[in-house]
Sequence to fold (188 residues):
Amino acid sequence: MSATTPLPEHDPAAIAARITQPVVLVGLMGVGKSTVGRKLAAMLRRDFVDADEAIVEAAQRSIPEIFATFGEAHFRDGERRVIARLIEERHGVIATGGGAFVDPSTRALILERAIAVWIDCDVDTLVERTARRNTRPLLQNGDPKEILTRLAAERAPFYAEAPIRVTSVNGPHADTARAILEAIDQWL
Fold:
């Protein structure tokens, strides 16, 4: 190939044909798992499901209500069961909550039965994105930047177990979805 010949685009259909497990997106709140996940699913011509939305539907309560009424441990147990069901149902792209992959049982399940993709992002961008909604229980009691900085440090070793890591930057979510496609293509 000459220096002026562009590299061929990663063909989403060809990549999709090679994907035999659900793609599960992990990472901190605000990295764009749900938004990017919808774009990625469309590119792969697969369905998308947000695990948090499935939890709310199954529990018939909001996530803040579950946290307030039953605590985080109860929430994580239900989250693990819902993610197991979504993987078993063979959904194409699954977005998880920020703490899901930190739970050892949930992480093992995802690593064994899906393609885990860590979407990473700088803390300042996370602060800006998470400020748009006040539906994040872990950000309710304290300075969001301090909380997100701490969570990023605590959770990075867990997220790093995902075989694929992509950085989300400010810009079109389709760019991050394309980066995930390219990373999956290389990983496969």
Remarks:
- The chain has one domain: 25-187.
- The beta strands are 23-26, 48-50, 93-95, 115-120, 164-167.
- The radius of gyration is 17 Å.
- Residues 1-7 have pLDDT under 50 and may be disordered.
